[in-house]
């Protein structure tokens, strides 16, 4: 909803009206074009080759870590790799299901899991038993075009959680005894694969089905799954769920390599304004009419715990009666170190942390977490204006967020591209849950 209809709700998080002090941690400099030449892609399928060439240098997956204590019955108690500790199908709550055969001592004289009650705590928040921490896993593009997260000393919560430390193989103090779960959706194209190497328990599910089983407390093990084995139709959405546990001192290796890229959605804002939400037409599904939101005010396009993008709608001398236009965009949140980027039409300005940037044309700006290029427009977001020259801003941010803006004298049009966000999101760009039916005008404006 808009700030005018809910002033108390907007006051706390208002972005557009927060103009900070002097510019910090930023600089304007020339940026060389991104080099996308990769030497080892000739054997990839045409679809996968296109994905590799177009993909960013780094992607990320959001994960949840739960820290346990050594006293938990399932930690520091068993040894050995054993398949079948969990059922081959995820439960209704999308968590691994304890296999009752773990209780059969004739099969396993020394059961690798204590009991179902204790196992059910692994991937659920249980006060007094575990502590939840959010974790972002960065994957770097390799020379062969795969994305890799590789850590031979994987201790992501040292100094956090319970912080009950032990000395590891590197003679350093580390926080062991934790679980990690990661969820993502991706679009199937031929040739996708997923490889994990590490210790201890690892279970990978795709579309609720167990595809990698490296259960038990063991040294580093490796397994690869080809997504082609799911017998899917190209373009189908696939649900990926990854579950991991570090259950024993004193080493921790973690290597994940994949050609899978998280689903990226596109939200387009143009004209009166019309808004095409992230879920509209996703996975090649039929598109519905764009939302027409004609009121003036400050509204959230994207609102998430870490990413906040806000729009200001209002009238111009060209605006038809009872309609409005997109007058400015603001970007803020922890993903931008809580600085604020504001982009206005040509008659306005572009500021980062309160200081003007891109004051000439063409121009470029960059810092450690963002890169903006102000150049002649190659494409018109609003087809009605295709015969007029336009200036364009291309913005690239952390967390795989990309924004394209047509900057006109009195208004702007914009395209926002981003993956789903951990913890959900909402705003006029929709809730990005792959279901366009709940992003109707009535439901979006009422949320």
What does this entry show, briefly?
It contains four helices and 29 strands.
Can you tell me about this structure?
By secondary structure, the protein is mainly beta. Helix content is 5%, strand content 36%. The chain has four helices and 29 strands. Strands 11-10-14-8-2-4-5-15-9-13 form a ten-stranded antiparallel sheet, with no helix packed on it. Strand 23 and strand 24 (355-356) form a beta hairpin. The radius of gyration is 24 Å and the shape is elongated.
Q: How much strand content do the residues show? A: 35-45%
Strand order of the largest sheet: 11-10-14-8-2-4-5-15-9-13
N-end to C-end Cα span: 6 Å
- Provide the helix percentage: under 10%
Q: Give a short account of the largest sheet.
A: 10 strands, antiparallel
Q: State Rg.
A: 24 Å
Helix and strand content put the structural class at mainly beta
Tell me the number of strands: 29
Multimerization state: single chain
Q: Mean pLDDT score, rounded?
A: 86
- The low-confidence parts are 1-41
From the spread of the alpha carbons, the general shape counts as elongated
Count helical runs. Answer: 4
Offer a few descriptive terms:
single chain, nine-stranded antiparallel beta sheet, 4 helices, 29 strands, elongated, 447 residues, mainly beta, disordered N terminus
List the SSEs and their pairings:
Elements: H1 7-11, E1 26-27, H2 46-54, E2 58-67, E3 80-81, H3 116-119, E4 131-141, E5 147-151, E6 165-167, E7 173-175, E8 178-187, E9 193-198, E10 202-206, E11 209-213, E12 216-217, E13 221-226, E14 237-246, E15 254-258, E16 264-270, E17 274-276, E18 291-292, E19 297-303, E20 308-314, E21 325-332, E22 341-343, E23 350-352, E24 355-356, E25 363-367, E26 370-376, E27 391-397, E28 402-407, E29 412-419, H4 441-446
Antiparallel strand pairs: 1-25, 2-4, 2-8, 3-12, 4-5, 5-15, 6-7, 8-14, 9-13, 9-15, 10-11, 10-14, 16-17, 16-29, 17-18, 19-20, 20-21, 21-22, 22-23, 23-24, 25-26, 26-27, 27-28, 28-29
């Amino acid at each position: 909803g808009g700030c005018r209809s809910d002033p108390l709700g907007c006051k706390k998080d208002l972005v557009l009206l927060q103009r900070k002090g002097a510019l910090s941690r930023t600089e304007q400099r020339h940026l060389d074009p991104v080099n996308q030449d990769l030497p080892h892609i000739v054997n990839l399928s045409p679809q996968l080759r296109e994905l590799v060439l177009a993909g960013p240098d780094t992607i990320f997956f959001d994960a949840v870590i739960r820290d346990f204590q050594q006293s938990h019955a399932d930690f520091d108690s068993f040894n050995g790799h054993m398949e079948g500790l969990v059922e081959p199908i995820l439960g209704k709550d999308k968590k691994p299901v304890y296999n009752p055969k773990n209780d059969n001592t004739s099969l396993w004289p020394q059961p690798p899991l204590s009991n179902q009650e204790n196992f059910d705590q692994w991937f659920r928040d249980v006060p007094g038993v575990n502590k939840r921490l959010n974790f972002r896993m960065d994957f770097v593009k390799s020379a062969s075009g795969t994305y890799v997260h590789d850590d031979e000393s994987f201790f992501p919560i040292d100094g956090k959680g319970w912080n009950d430390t032990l000395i590891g193989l590197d003679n350093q103090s580390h926080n062991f005894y934790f679980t990690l779960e990661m969820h993502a959706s991706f679009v199937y194209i031929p040739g996708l694969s997923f490889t994990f190497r590490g210790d201890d328990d690892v279970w990978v599910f795709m579309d609720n089905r167990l595809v990698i089983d490296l259960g038990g407390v063991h040294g580093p093990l490796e397994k690869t799954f080809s997504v082609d084995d799911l017998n899917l139709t190209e373009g189908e959405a696939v649900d990926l769920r990854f579950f991991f546990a570090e259950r024993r001192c004193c080493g921790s290796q973690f290597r994940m390599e994949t050609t899978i890229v998280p689903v990226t959605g596109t939200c387009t804002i143009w004209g009166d304004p019309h808004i095409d939400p992230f879920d509209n037409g996703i996975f090649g599904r039929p598109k519905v009419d764009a939302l027409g939101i004609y009121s003036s005010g400050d509204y959230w396009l994207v609102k998430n715990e870490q990413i906040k993008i806000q729009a200001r709608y209002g009238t111009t001398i060209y605006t038809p009666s009872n309609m409005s236009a997109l007058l400015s965009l603001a970007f803020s949140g922890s993903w931008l170190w809580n600085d604020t980027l504001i982009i206005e039409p040509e008659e306005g300005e572009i500021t980062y942390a309160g200081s003007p940037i891109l004051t000439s044309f063409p121009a470029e700006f960059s810092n450690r977490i963002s890169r903006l290029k102000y150049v002649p427009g190659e494409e018109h977001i609003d087809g009605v204006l295709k015969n007029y020259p336009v200036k364009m801003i291309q913005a690239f941010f952390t967390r795989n967020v990309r924004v394209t803006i047509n900057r006109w004298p009195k208004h702007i049009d914009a395209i926002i591209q981003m993956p789903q966000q951990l913890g959900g999101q909402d705003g006029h760009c929709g809730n990005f849950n792959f279901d366009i039916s709940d992003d109707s005008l009535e439901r979006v404006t009422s949320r």
